[in-house]
Structures are given as structure tokens and as C-alpha cells.
Amino acid sequence: MNGDSRFNPARLVHIGILFTILFIVLIVRLYRLQVVQAEIYLRHSETNRARVIEIPPLRGLMYDRNGKLLVDNFPSYTLFVTPWTIDNDPSIRDTLLKLTGIDNDEFEKRLRRIRNNRYTPVRILRDVPFALYAAIEERRVHMPGVSFQMEPKRSYPFHIAPHSLGHIGELKERDLAQYPKQKEGDIVGLRGLEKTWNDELTGLRGIKYIEVDAVGRIIGPLVGTNPVLPQPGNDLILSIDLQLQLLAEELLKGKAGAVVCIEPATGDVLAIVSKPDYPPETFANVLSRDDWQKLQEDPGKPLLHRAVQGVYPPGSIFKMAMLSAGLESGVIDTNWSVTCVGGTQLGRRWFKCWKKSGHGKDVIHNLAIESSCDVYFYLLGSKLGIDRYYDLISRFPFDRRTGIDLVHESAGLLPSRAYLDKKYGRNNWSEGIIYNISIGQGETLVTPLQSAVYASALANGGWWIKPHIVKELKNETELIKPERFSDRIQMGFNPEVMTIVRDDMLRVTEGKYGTAGWLFDPRVHVAGKTGTAQNPHGEDHALFVAFAPFDDPQIALAVVIEHGKHGSTSAAPIAYKLIRQYLGLDEHTWRVYRSKVLTEIANRRAAEESNEEEVQE
Amino acid sequence: MRLRRLEIEWIVPLVTILLISVGMVALYSASKASGGGFFERQLIYLAIGLVFAVTLALMPDRITFAFSYIGYVFILLLLVLVLMVGTGPTGRWIGLGTFHIQPSELGKLAVIIALARFFSDRRTDLRKFKNIFLMAQIAIIPFGLILIEPDLGTSLVIPVITGMIAYWAGFPYLALVLAVSPIAVMIASINPYALVVVIGIALVLGYFTGIRLHLAMLWGVALGIIGWLTPRLWDHLKPYQRQRLMTFVNPEADPLGSGYQIIQSKVAVGSGEFWGKGFLNGSQTHRGFLPEQHTDFIFSVIGEEFGFAGATIVLILFWILIVRLFILARKTKSPFSSLCIVGIASTISLQVVVNVGMTIGIMPVTGLPLPLLSYGGSSLLTTMAALGLATGMGTRYRGS
Fold this sequence. Notes:
heterodimer; A: alpha+beta; Penicillin-binding protein 2a (Domain 2); Beta-lactamase; 3 domains; seven-stranded mixed beta sheet; five-stranded antiparallel beta sheet; 38% helix; 19% strand; elongated; B: mainly alpha; two-stranded antiparallel ribbon
């Protein structure tokens, strides 16, 4: 630098000298390595047979809330082949093809999966049957580069919840982006909890250095190295109650539908069933293409997780939401009543009530819920109007996913003015649409899981909980509560409104006109609501939501039976049995509660009747 | 009157082209071995890099000057962005369709240009603490952002080149001693004798650069305390904390600690002997024993296939490139240009020393690429752009 006194040329020379010295050090060092010691390294390079082998970690297990093992590991053999040995000696390929029965293209595809390395053993076949294992092992002397590794495989002590537990499999290239910590060919969770909790379950892989001979056969561990042991993944403690789950699976056997049971205070999923399903081991074994196709094309859709992916019109179970909205808005009060003559006229159309003979005069809110009077809700919906309807009803966020720890969850639908405008054209839809959605038919859609969360919200006084199946994570030393554990939203309904709606739900099972009257159990107060979802493709779907015990809800649930016609006859009995099981109400305790509760109910009815009389006076 | 002869700088481009050619040959061999198509992709990067280099070489210096701070801020934003949306195996890339950029590579160039502008200002008096503080500020922000990516190797380049540029800009010797000695003491504290020697040297240097005697005593005590505390703090850490710190310092390290990568690399280089095994004949390269042979360990491929002769030629080519850049920095009349060129030359030399040192086992595995030779778009593009810039700056404003 000329002409600037601050810059002293000597300093540039200093820096130059510094780097020159460093370069000389490098060259001297290279000379030592490549000339002085070259012979040692040359010998090393000729005998260099060091290889890095990964030790897969043990995948975490899954337990139910009481510590019963639900998902286990057991060892299986996986066949590995090192690509370059096949390139050297194609006869190995022929032998392997003959023994395993894999066709050439498929073999080639699996072999070249890891594209930029011919020296890493590639997984060719998982869960090798013992006969094949023995056959290959016999000939292995002539087949360098062919080896077996023990890899754990999933096993399931109980046939339960295959959709929710999910399954594991090899990571394909197209899914790499979803698993940032893993590489192609790794065993990862592909569905269900296995996928959602993959990072926790996986653990850390270990590494060992081994020495191989000239053709790639393992001689033993590389001298002077220590393996890094793998760290097993965390176990999952599920909130599932195995006994309840087993009963629910049993009760739904042979039907199509779903059951979801939730602990209303916490969001613990106690049982989650979707039928028809498939044996949980289906994907643990190597699935043939035919079997896979059969599963996919089955008209009963066994692969669909109906509990979280199935959407159904809620039917009458939606009426509690409507009543909450009506009371909260102030459009109606508890005295507002309708006259039901078995339907109501709107323009040229007659909107039927399910009860042809009608519910008579002075149908107020409690009778409307108890006997599920459609006319009451037609008129309530009409009074609210679409905007107020959507504004208040969306406090029950049926149009959003619940956020359960399962992949591929669906959301339901709550039609807004914007939605209807888009569907039918601006203002090109009639009042009749509102009538329909007010009784939970038409555009309104919910999933069974959302219905159970809805029942929980009614049970816990207005908290929309975020349900979860994984309660805790367990490693060798500690229990960890997952962060998402306690998420819930206060829906913002007046507590009095919630109390009214809850009281009305109790009448469904205990009232004179209750649609699920025979679900009444003298030992415990059960609040519930039946529903029938209109199904244009066949028999209607039956729905039932409930929670119990009424005063201190321990369980809230939703039952959906496809083509079950009426909630009261097909869905409610299932709910009843589940509640009895969960609360431990066997025949023995029946008598203890009987008289107590019967008296209570008799008293309440008497009080109500005297009230009615007073009003009449 | 005589027309001034237009002197076009040709040594820097020529040496650059030679180095890139060597790199492509080695990459072809490595690519052939692993079959990853790196060679073809590097060709594309090369074409783009050429456009960058020529554009920057022709760009008037005042534009570089005008954009220096804006570019710096923009790169900082990219560095923040990569922390949030970083992809790739180490989360250091930002995806742009099929291409990914590594902002930390651009970060180095941005810091050089920003510092060059800062120091080229005549008002920047380096004897004032305020200015030293501002200088540190320019370096520390990108340093910190790259450090927490985490990419310790790249981040450490920044303080070193900052030091180089500052030294050229007239950073007072005293301040230099004060800044460097605590770090030297911390490193030396492993060995009590080394510690005493380092403190001694620091005090002597401090004395000769103008620190007063009683303050020198105080400084010696302070250094002593640092040297005494460092190993105790280290021992005080729990084993897993130490492990975590070590992993942070050196994330690419072989989990065994047995230096598997280093051993393999040394075997490859050493077995190359004087003349090498010949192109495509490296047994280590072609049998898949070399880790990361197309990126960080490309020099091992050169060492194995072209021997001591080839490896030394590469180092000498780098040396010529760097010395030529220093000469250009000396000749130019513009302080801004001169500082930029010194920064660029220092970055390249530092990376060569660290990377080659790593492949022959005298430096830790840090994941710094070998400039112009390692596979990788961001590194190649940035280095070529930087060299284009330096060539252009060196050609203009030349002294007579």
C-alpha cells in the first residue's frame, strides 16, 4: 500500500512469512509421511480391511397405562450383501436369487439403494425364515460379502389398535425429508405412534470397527478400537387401558365403526378402536405385493383409521353444541319453547322431526335434548342465522384437527357463510341448509375422535382438550412427560350454559322420554346423547357420545357404528358396557347403588313435576 | 505523453485455473470410486463460479464499497434464517429449489469486505478503544451465528482473518498482545511448563510493545489466574458435560476418538509414496476406505494417487497464489482494495493449512473444505468470486 502512512509494508511481510512457515511445516510433514514412513503406510494400505459397521439401537417398547406390554421386539435375521462383491463374482447373485426367490430387477434395485457407496453392506431381505437362513449360511464360504445381522422385529402380544400403534419399515428415498435424522434404508416408524414418536423410539446407533479379509468376510473386531454401544430408544407409556381397549375391540368385532374413550380432565386416550382392521403383525412381516393389494382394495377399508380419519355427520349428538350456542348468544333462554307436530314447514318444504307424532306443545331445551326433538333445533338454527351460528359453534373446533399424536388425522367441517357461498354460489342457498346443519346433518362433519373430545368438553365444563395416546416416555432412569401433555383450550362458554346442557344430557339416560333410557344404570349417572348420521349410500350411521360418572367424569367416549341405523340401539349399548367396565361396575355392586340412586331419581322427578305444576298455576 | 499500459493480472487466474484442474482430476477419481456424480455437479458449479468471478472482477470497486455494509447485513439475515430453516445433514444449508447454499461460506467474504471498508476509513483510529470494540462487533456477530449452527471450524476462520486484516490495517502491537495472550494461556494451561513459558513471552512482548512495568505485573497475575483456573473449571465439569463440550468443539469427530478418519487418510496419503499410485489407481480411494473423500478429504486422494510430488505441487501453487495476492495488496493504491485482498488471501491460506493439516493428522477434524479443490458449490462459488474480486481490485489503481 502506497501513500497511506497507516499501512506499514513490513506487516504484510510478517503475514506472508507466517503462512510460508505453515506451508513449509505441511510439506515437511508430507515428506515424512510419504517418503520417510511410506513403507509402513503402504503395508497398511495393502492390508487395510477396516470397515465401519453400524449397530442398530433397540427400538423403544410400548406399554399400556398399567404397565402391560403392548409392543415388543424380538430378534430376526436380516440378509445383507455388499454390492462390490457381487460385481466381482456374479455367481453369488445367481445363488442368492435362486435361494431367496427374489427376481433380478428387485434384487438389483435393493442392492443399489445406497448410491454412492459400493462398500457398505445393503439390506436385501428382512425377517429371513430359518430354513432360508440355514441354506445361505451353509454356502456362505463361497459367498463373500453376504452376511446376516440380527435386527429386532416388532411383535404384538395383543391384537389391538393396529392403526394407532402403527408399524415400522425401511426408510425410502422419497420420505427422507420427513426423517432428518435418518438415512435411506434405516428402520423407521412409518405410521401411527411409531411415526409420531419415531425420534423418541429410535435411540442412537452405535458403531463398531471390524476387520474383513480380502473378499469381505468378517475376521473380527479391528485391533485397537472399541465399539460405541448403541443407546436404546425411549419406551412409550401409553394412556391406553388394555382391559378397556380389549373390550372395545371385542364389542366392535364384525362391525364397521370406531370407539374413542378419553379421560375428560387430562386428554388421556383410554381406548381407541377402528374396525375393520388388520392383524398388527401384518406390516412387521414382509408383506407380499398381493397381500398389500388385497388390503388396499378391500371394500371394508381396513387400512382406514376410522377413529381419526373417518368423517361422519354428527347427527343429533350435535344438539348440545347447538343448545350451548343458542343459550350463549342470548337468542333463546331456558324458557324458549317450540311446538312440535312431527315436523315444521319452511316454504314449500316440510322438515320432519324423527318422531312422526311430534313432541307436542311447550318443548323447552331439556325435553328437546332428552327426546332429541328436531323441530326445536330447526327453529333455533333459523333464529341464530348462519353468521351467529358459525361464530358460536366454532368454539367447538370441529373444523380443526384435535392434534392427537397420530399422523394423518382428519378434521371435520363446520359450514360458514363463506363456505356455503363457495359451495352453492353467493346467496344461492336457502334457509333449509341452516335447518339441516342445525341438527348435525348436511355439511356438518366430525370424526369419532372429535366427538369424544366434544363429550370430554361437555364433561369437564368447557375445556377443549388436546387428546394424546402417549402419556409418558421412559428411559433407563427416568420418566419424562411429553410437552404436549397438558394442552387445552377454554372454549369460553358461560359456566351456567354448560351446566344446563350437562343436566339435559343426563335426562337422555334418566329422563322419562330419554332416547337412551335403557342405558340407565342405578349405580352411576351417565350423561349421553344418541345420534343418527344420514348416509345417502346406505343405512344410516349410529352415533353415541357419553360421559360418566355425571358428578365427577372419569371417562368420556364416542361410539360410531357404520350402518348401525339408530344410536340408541347399536351404539349406546357398546358405550354402556365400556363405561361399566372402566368404572368397575360389576353385578355385585349393583344392589349397593340401586336403592340409593333410584330414590334420588324418584325425588328429582317428583320435584320437577311439582315445579311444572307451579308454572302452570 | 505515453499511454499507460493496461496491465491485466494473469498470475492469479492462471494459478486458480491450475488448482481447479487438479481438483477436478482428483474429484473425478473420487467420484468414480463412489459413483455419486459429484464430478458432473462440480462442473456445473464451476460454470456458475466462472460467471461470478468475471462479474466481480469487472465490477468497479466503488460498487463493492457501496454494498459492503448492506451485503454484510444481508448475509447476517441469511445466517439467522439458516438457524431457523436450515436443511441438510447438519442443518447448515438453505434450500433454493434443487440447489442449496451454505450462508456460512458467504459469511466469511462478507466479513472481509465489511472490515475492509471499516478500516479503510481514515477516521478509524485503531488506538481508540471504541474502534477496536466496533471491529470486534463486526466479527463477533457472524462468528456467533455460525458457531451456534454449530460449525466451529468455519466460525473460527472469522476471528483469525479479522486478526490478519486488523494487523495489516495497523492494529497496535500492544492490543494484539493483550488480545491473544489470554487465549494462548488457556491453551497452554494443559502443561504447567508451557504455561510459564507462554506467560513469560506475553509479558516480554507486552513490555516491548509499551505496557508500563507495574501494569505488566498486574497483567502477569491476571494471566496466571486464567491459567490456574482453566484446568480446574474443566475438571469441575461433569463427564457428560465435558463430552458435550468436546462434541460441540468437534462435531465431525469420530465417535470412537480413535481417529478412524485420520488413520484412513494418513494411510491413503502415506501409501502414495513419492510419485503416487497413479490416476484412478488409489486403492484406499477406490475401495471406499476414505471417508468424505470428495469433500473434506479430497487432498488425501491427491496424496494417494499423485504422491508427495503431486501434493507438494498443489501446496506450492497455493503458495504462489497467496504470495501473488499479497503483492497485489501491496501495490494497489486503494486501502479498501488492499484490505479486501489481504482478507481473501488470508482466508484461503488458513483453510489450506487447516484442511491439509487435517488430512495428514496434525490438525483436528473440523470440516473445513480445501478451497477450489473440495466438492461443494458454496465453497467453490465463494472462493472463485473472492478471487475474481481480488484480481479486479489488484488490476485497478495500480501504482506506477
